[in-house]
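Re: export button greyed out
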Amino acid sequence: DTGVSQNPRHKITKRGQNVTFRCDPISEHNRLYWYRQTLGQGPEFLTYFQNEAQLEKSRLLSDRFSAERPKGSFSTLEIQRTEQGDSAMYLCASSFLAGAGETQYFGPGTRLLVL
Amino acid sequence: AQTVTQSQPEMSVQEAETVTLSCTYDTSESNYYLFWYKQPPSRQMILVIRQEAYKQQNATENRFSVNFQKAAKSFSLKISDSQLGDTAMYFCALRGRVTGGTSYGKLTFGQGTILTVHP
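Workaround output, generated via the alternate export path:
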């Protein structure tokens, strides 16, 4: 069990550029979540997948955001035409849905700075 | 809509002493789960303790215990024998019941409490 990994750990980009983040969940975890955390605040839910199906998207996820989880393994989160307000920590979490006993395990996050 | 409120932005405690972090929440669901997560500086979030709302007994994990008051919608975390390694941001979180494909899996977090343990 190597834990949830995220790449890159840090990303600096200029306003208007596109960025893509990757999350590798714990092996055999069928649920994968994306959250956004701004400085000094708690994480906010963005979207989640069960296997390869994206089951829910938050209203925070504007049209510039897209997430995929091909083949139900790793996931990518892409932000197009980045804005300074997108600067935040993007967290990925995974879990194994087994009745009521679901616990989400978090990755280290990708810190995005938009200049 | 679910909400979680942590009214203590910062707390401090001396090593070996006990500290309690507060959390209140609101949900319309009758069955749900509550969590405390710890986020050390520049490190990833880890689960400290969880409580299922249908269980009346308060959860405990070694030095960590909760005081779950369902009627008051209160869920506080008590840390006994505080250690320097407990210094972190602590988040209270709420999750609805997960059933099959129903999308109740997402966590709703509070604003966090920064806990500093002094030697």
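The two ends of chain A are 37 Å apart (CA to CA). The button fix ships in the next patch.
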